[in-house]
Amino acid sequence: MPSADQMKALLKSHIDGDDAQFYAVAMQVAAHEAKLGHGKLAQELRSLIDEAKLRHNSFESANKSVPLAQPRGELANLLTLSYPKLRIPDMILGRDIRERLTRVIKEHRQITKIRSFGLAPRKKLLFVGPPGTGKTMSAGVLAGELNLPLFSVRLDSLITKFMGETAAKLRQIFDAIAQVRGVYLFDEFDSIGSNRSILNEVGEIRRVLNSFLQLIEQDESNSLLLAATNHPEILDSALFRRFDDVIEYRLPDRDLLAQAIQANLAAFKKIDVYWPQLADVAVGLSYADITRACNDALKDAIINDRDHVTNDDILKTLSERKTIQGK
After folding, report:
1. Which of 38, 73, 238, 249 is close enough to 33 for a disulfide, judged by CB 3.0 to 4.6 Å?
2. Residues linked to residue 150 through DSSP beta bridges, in sequence order
3. Reduced to 3 states, what is the DSSP secondary structure of residue 166?
4. Positions of the chain with pLDDT lower than 70, given as ranges
């Protein structure tokens, strides 16, 4: 009979979905039974384990295109999984950014063809720019357009105070990048990519950055690796040449602001506004600010049983948003 520790290990690995650990513990149980002289039982256990492995491998081979339901084992604490349905038309973007994202999408849709010529698609992208300008949403668009899962790295779980532990967790993430094709997003990337020469930077973060530089250099997977930061000025210079493309996001100009306001108000039937005036007032705000301001105006109309939104309604919420942002 398996020991209490083995029973607990079997149950835990089953709950975590860690098949490798489950099989390893099961084989330990079989070996223990063999030592006790229970040869027939040991052989039956080994046969069952082999049959389970065979069925599992057959299922995996037949379902390679099916995305994982959830990251398993320890990765569940390091990655958050989502399946975005966003598409390029869902975003208000400047032409240059739209063209560069479209180019990445086209390359990955033709990844087999590109690799057959000994080339690789752009797959390591650095997004830089102010908050609320579309960096994180772009990750969702890439995942949605390519029908890939989006894995967001949980920096609160990745970064620890124990020497060497963060680097080990980082390696786990890169193992997942190699094994499961997807879009992997390191948001607020400056928390691990800051300049190694900064005097008050702790030694552990320097080691983590060195590990990241090595791992990203070695990565040859078909996954997309995205890093996003609001503070490119503090990133270590060695990082920039490790990325295939650096895309700079900016605050929207007047034309893009008008488009963003229109898009956010499109669901409401009665709109009586003067777009150029609203765009003039909104200068300096981000796309995220526009969304919040428009939502505030719509909620106010709904709460007060009004079936329309006026120019003054939007001007008020835009002004409030600028006050909050100190602009």
Report:
1. 38
2. 82, 183
3. helix
4. 1-2, 5-6, 8, 10-18, 20, 25, 30, 33-36, 42, 53-72, 160-163, 193-205, 327
Closest CA to 262 of 239, 241, 287, 240: 287
User: What is the C-alpha separation between 194 and 7, in angstroms, rounded?
Assistant: 45
Residue 159: CB atoms within 10 Å: 16
Rounded CA-CA distance 229/94 in Å is 19
Structure tokens at 92: 């208000």
Decide the pairing of beta strands 183-186 and 150-153: parallel
Mind giving me the DSSP string for 271-314? Answer: EE--HHHHHHHHTT--HHHHHHHHHHHHHHHHHTT-SEEEHHHH
- Pairing state between β 150-153 and 79-82: antiparallel
- How many whole angstroms separate alpha carbon 60 and alpha carbon 20? 14
pLDDT at 233: 86
Alpha-carbon gap, residue 60 to 284, rounded angstroms: 50
Q: Which residue has the tokens 């290990």?
A: 9
Can you list the domains of the chain with their CATH numbers? 4-62 (no CATH), 73-248 (3.40.50.300), 254-325 (1.10.8.60)
Tell me the pLDDT tens digit for each residue of 64-77. 443 444 666 777 88
Give the CB-side neighbour count of residue 111, counting CA atoms within 13 A.
14
245-269 b/e with 16+ CB inside 10 Å = b? ebbebebbeeebbbbbbbbbbeeee
